[in-house]
Amino acid sequence: MKGSTEGEIVRAAPWVWGQHIAIAAAYGVIYQVALYVSFPQFLLTTGLRLACLLLLPVRYWPAIAIGEGLPLVENAVLCAGRFGIPWAILASFPTVALWMPLLKPIRERWPLYDPDGRLRMPMILLATLGAAVITAAITTATLIAALLHSPGKWPEISPVDFFFAYVLGAYLGALTLTPMILALHERVRALHDKTLSISVIWHSPLFRDVFWWVFPALASIAWLAATTHDDTLRQVARLALLWPVLGLAWRHGWHGTAVGGMGASLALAVTAKGLLDPATIQVQVFLAFALSGTLLMGTRKQTLRAEARPERS
Q: Which of 115, 116, 121 is nearest to 54 (CA)?
């Protein structure tokens, strides 16, 4: 009996290691894509990290850290001569590993879903804020290491200003991608025995709203903000990006906020004039508060509806 059990463990070991290797490879590829399409104002990699740490079992977290770390090590080695060894050490450390001491106790105390199967949005926003601060801290430390390696080369760069810009960019980057991934995950779970198909997607009221009026509205507003030479009109157009988000939130709850928030964030990023553009930062702050509030209100509304159903029946 003992020999049989040991044999099963030995046979299972390659499969377990294979899972970790596959997850590390898949995450590494997706991370590189998210990094490539990220804007300085919206770090989509923070959203990818947070979604993976919230959805994947803790036993796979080391694989995520390896998948993120290997490309960073390669880049650090190639650029060490330009920015220095301290910079290379900081730049090669996977940020997702710094998040784990924060996310692990949060997940142990508050599971992603409550006993009734509803998403714990306050917990997600708390994790998002903490992860954004950690990301900004390590990114700013890496920036300072590069500045110390070449004193006076970039006198216009203020680490303090960049720290707060990184906090905002990481927070919005997480709100841009994480709720979207969680909403898709929840909708796929809700299909039960149905197969996800083009027909199912097309008949989704949320998809139709996005296709028929949200995407055209965001694209038109972003085009106006990016092409106008009037600063006041540009700022008004940027603020107008929130209206499609609020419309989707009203019609579809936090799922609508997730989809609309992603569209509005990307549209705003297209109109930005640099990481520390004051006008863009003002709209980013407004967008961050609006998305956080509508996500909380959307899940609260979902909870109230679920509690009201038994009373009606």
A: 121
Length reported for the chain: 313
Structural domain of residue 261, as residue ranges?
191-303
- Give residue-wise pLDDT tens across range 117-168: 788 999 999 999 999 999 999 999 999 999 998 887 877 788 888 999 999 9
186-195: pLDDT as tens digits? 888 877 666 7
Distances (CA, A) of 262 to 4, 189, 250, 267: 52, 21, 16, 9
DSSP string, 50-61: HHHHHHS-GGGH
Residues 229, 226: Cα–Cα separation, whole Å: 9
Q: Which residue do the tokens 């919230």 mark? A: 54
Chain position carrying tokens 């650029």: 79
**Same domain flag for 244 and 296:** yes
